[in-house]
Design goal:
Blueprint: H1 2-13, E1 28-29, E2 32-33, E3 35-36, H2 48-63, H3 67-70, H4 78-90, E4 97-99, H5 103-114, E5 123-127, H6 132-144, H7 149-152, E6 153-156, H8 167-176, E7 181-187, H9 199-208, E8 212-216, H10 228-231, E9 235-238, E10 253-256, H11 303-319, H12 321-343, E11 349-351, E12 364-368, H13 372-381, E13 384-385, E14 387-389, E15 393-396, H14 405-419
Helix pairs in contact: 1-14, 2-11, 4-11, 5-6, 12-14
């Protein structure tokens, strides 16, 4: 494994994103930085976060309610501070994105508008073995409309003998249920396998049969390179505490395509912060939605949490998603070689994440036939922060903004020693 160390040092020396590592607080293990590979679960804290949050606390302290209009970043329009950064990451128009609520709350809010079942067109197509919260939301929404989830929810399982879904299988399922599909609701990157789904193709296929289409980008936003406006899904939702590094429970976000920007006819969960801004404080009894994604807001901005997100978003805009994507593919490709070398000729351990970089994000899922939890515990004890997903997978996510190629090489050496 020593040749990987030399290669890693050379790659780190030419990495244009290497300086950004110093912009984050790294957890320590025995006094030295841990190898942190769980940005797909909770991203690290930017060093600027404390200052950004403290500024809002100071403005609250000194201005009280006047901070809504006179703080250094006025709270009344705080969501606008995040808008251009989110649009950059989403590949969207600024009017198509807004930071609000939390992930599953946003998923419910979007399905109120874009899951419009009839007695003949009522099914929702989703990935099998999806993250439980998504399944709970989808099933509860079909029940809300009076349907039995057993008939209304179609879950696609991996192709026989594989761990992922092929494009052909997805297309076949959409065509098979064409006349009964109301919504296709996929994750962008599957939480368990790390598979990155073909958003533009799925969108085109779903629209061709008359279904709406939306994506849960919890493991994709800030991870993979997106062009949501061009690709055209009706909506997307995401959280911000994973790759966006905005802290535990950080404010989520939504994308609503521009073709729905001025659709007061769409049913929605209405709240006063989604009302037209110019008339919001006239307190009129009738709801007049704001243009674009802003019209789906419910309540005024949770400023302290948004300040934490803004600290990270400014880093993303400086680093640029194009460069993040380039390093993601290089870093994950290097990790794949390192892990496979550590596994060697063992047949009871394997990577189940797609090998093609275009089919995955910054994640590798390592599956064990037995003993995986023991390997996980040993990695944690050695200062490698990965996560365990029941029943038999260790996920490691080398994040371009703060992980190095040397992190990956060190991980390989430790993993090989544990497996041996």
């Amino acid at each position: 494994m020593t040749h990987f160390v030399q290669e890693a040092e050379e790659l780190d020396a030419t990495d244009v994103l290497a300086p950004f590592r110093d912009r984050f607080h790294l957890p320590l293990h025995n006094g030295s930085p841990a190898i942190y590979f769980t940005g797909n679960s909770l991203g690290l804290m930017p060093k600027a976060t404390e200052r950004m949050v403290m500024e809002e606390l100071e403005d609250w302290q000194h201005l009280g309610v006047e901070g809504h209009m006179h703080s250094r970043r006025p709270w009344f329009s705080y969501h606008r501070q995040l808008r251009s950064h989110l649009a950059h990451i989403a590949g969207a128009l600024e009017t198509e994105v807004v930071a609000m609520n939390s992930l599953t709350a946003n998923l419910h809010a979007m399905m109120v508008s874009f899951y419009r079942p009839t007695q003949t067109r009522f099914k929702i197509l989703m990935v099998g073995q999806e993250f439980p919260s998504d399944r709970y939301a989808v099933c509860s929404m079909t029940q809300w409309h009076g349907f039995d989830p057993a008939q209304a929810v179609i879950e696609l399982t991996p192709d026989h003998g594989t761990h992922t879904l092929s494009a052909a299988r997805i297309a076949q399922a959409i065509e098979q249920h064409a006349d009964t599909l109301a919504l296709v609701m996929f994750s962008g990157v599957h939480f368990y396998t790390g598979q990155y789904f073909d958003i533009p193709t799925i969108t085109k296929q779903a629209h061709a049969v008359g279904a709406s289409v939306g994506f849960d980008l919890a493991h994709a936003f800030g991870n993979v390179n997106l062009q949501l406006h061009e690709w055209g899904p009706d909506f997307a939702v995401w959280c911000s505490y994973k790759y966006l590094n905005s802290g535990p429970g950080g404010v989520g976000g939504v994308f609503v395509h521009d073709r729905h920007a001025n659709r007061p006819d769409l049913p929605r969960l209405a709240g006063w912060w989604g009302n037209e801004e110019s008339t919001r404080f006239q307190m009129k009894p009738d709801f007049e939605p704001s243009y674009g994604a802003d019209g789906w807001q419910l309540s005024n901005a949770p400023v302290l949490s948004m300040a934490a997100q803004l600290a990270s978003l400014q880093i993303f805009s400086e680093a640029r998603m194009e460069r993040i994507g380039e390093k993601r593919d290089a870093l994950t490709g290097f990790a794949e070689r390192v892990v496979n070398t550590a596994i060697g000729d063992r047949t009871d351990v394997r990577i189940i994440t797609p090998s093609n970089p275009k089919d995955r994000g910054a994640q590798l899922s390592i599956q064990f036939d037995h003993g995986g939890r023991d390997v996980f515990d040993a990695l944690i004890a050695a200062g490698v922060v990965v996560d365990w997903r029941t029943p038999n997978v260790i996920r490691m996510a080398p994040v371009p903004l703060y992980n190095t190629f040397c992190d990956v090489a060190r991980f390989g050496i430790i993993l090989k020693d544990i497996l041996g």
